[in-house]
Amino acid sequence: MSDLGSAPIPAVSGEDHVRGPGGGRTLIVYADFECPFCAVLDMRLRALPADRVVFRHFPVRSSHPRAWPAACAAEAAALQGRFWEMHDALFADPARLEDPHLWERGRRLGLELERFDRDRRCDGVRDRVKRDFRAGVRGGVVTTPTIFELGDDGSVAKLSREEFGPA
Amino acid sequence: MIAAGSAVPEFTLKRGDDSDFTAADLEGKTTVLVFYPFAFSPVCTDQLNLYEDVLDDFSAQGATLYGVSCDATWSQTAFAAKLGVSIEQLSDFEPKGEVCRTFGVYHPGGFPQRALVIVGPDKVVRWSYQADSPGDLPGANLIFDALAA
């Protein structure tokens, strides 16, 4: 049996990747690193420093074949405490996501490369990405980027992509 | 559109090899017919990509998905190949839209509404859904909800 029936978007937890000071909005972003619209959105979000951003993976394999390896690379970097640095490096050049490009990013970020390469292929990292993806499917995410705003009462409201500027 | 509880009407769609796909092909299995407006259009691309990514879960639920549009089989085959999608495509090209009309999902603009129809092994419609507009993409979660109901 599948567990992909509807469920609310999960609350923000300690396992999420969170950036920003708080005080403004908390935005939960489902995105993939091969998606050009996600890269543009990320640029716009970084121009809104008051907002707290929660990044969740939503790599759609069939449309973006390198999105999964890129997501796993970000999670492998996270195991060395460098998720956001890898996140930014991936979105800075979404057309270059082949393995040598991922290694080059790891090198530039000063990651322990052998460990990075081992980690990005391990089950734990894949499961971490898959967990975000499946939670997104259950919450009705259908494409990237999809943005939710977390309310003070814990409710989650879907925002229009257009609120962040033209695609 | 065709409602839950209705028996599936007789129909004939074309498979990629130009053979017929008829109501008889629905017998004995749970089927999800995914009516989509146009091959190669952006939302249809997202829709088939998303459903393809959770195809194993549909199989685990005992469901087989088919994409249905008014595109010619050549276009559908090229579309599926471009996306790398294995969901079988069925064509309602000639007479254009006849099956879509039979299921009540033919848009006045000359293309299928974005609609989902789940048919049980007994060829009775278990669930049907039409998006508010062809630009709305129904989440895969809705299909899983309906399959589990």
Terminal CA distance of chain A = 38 Å
CATH superfamily of the domain at 35-150 in chain A: Glutaredoxin
Shape of chain A: globular
Helix content of chain A: 40-55%
**Unreliable stretches of chain B, pLDDT < 50, 5 or more residues?**
none
Characterise this structure.
The complex is a heterodimer of chains A (167) and B (149). Chain A has a domain at 35-150: Glutaredoxin. Helix content of chain A is 40%, strand content 14%. Chain A has helices spanning 36-46, 67-78, 83-92, 99-108, 113-120, 123-138, and strands at 17-19, 26-31, 52-57, 146-150, 156-159. Chain A has a five-stranded mixed sheet. In chain A, helix 2 (67-78) packs across helix 6. Chain A starts with 16 loop residues before the first strand and ends in an 8-residue tail after the last strand. The mean pLDDT of chain A is 93. With 149 residues, chain B is an alpha/beta fold. Chain B has helices at residues 42-53, 55-60, 73-83, 98-103, 140-148, and strands spanning 12-14, 20-22, 30-35, 63-69, 88-91, 106-107, 111-112, 115-119, 125-130. In chain B, the strands form three sheets. A five-stranded mixed sheet of chain B has the order 5-4-3-8-9. Chain B starts with 11 loop residues before the first strand and ends with a helix. Classes of the chains: A alpha+beta (167), B alpha/beta (149). Chains A and B meet through helix 6 of A and helix 1, helix 2 and helix 5 of B.
Write a compact overview of the structure shown.
By secondary structure, chain A is an alpha+beta fold. Chain A has helices at residues 36-46, 67-78, 83-92, 99-108, 113-120, 123-138; strands at 17-19, 26-31, 52-57, 146-150, 156-159.
Layout of strands and helices, then pairs:
The complex is a heterodimer of chains A (167) and B (149).
Chain A: E1 17-19, E2 26-31, H1 36-46, E3 52-57, H2 67-78, H3 83-92, H4 99-108, H5 113-120, H6 123-138, E4 146-150, E5 156-159
Parallel strand pairs in A: 2-3
Antiparallel strand pairs in A: 1-3, 2-4, 4-5
Helix pairs in contact in A: 2-3, 2-5, 2-6
Chain B: E1 12-14, E2 20-22, E3 30-35, H1 42-53, H2 55-60, E4 63-69, H3 73-83, E5 88-91, H4 98-103, E6 106-107, E7 111-112, E8 115-119, E9 125-130, H5 140-148
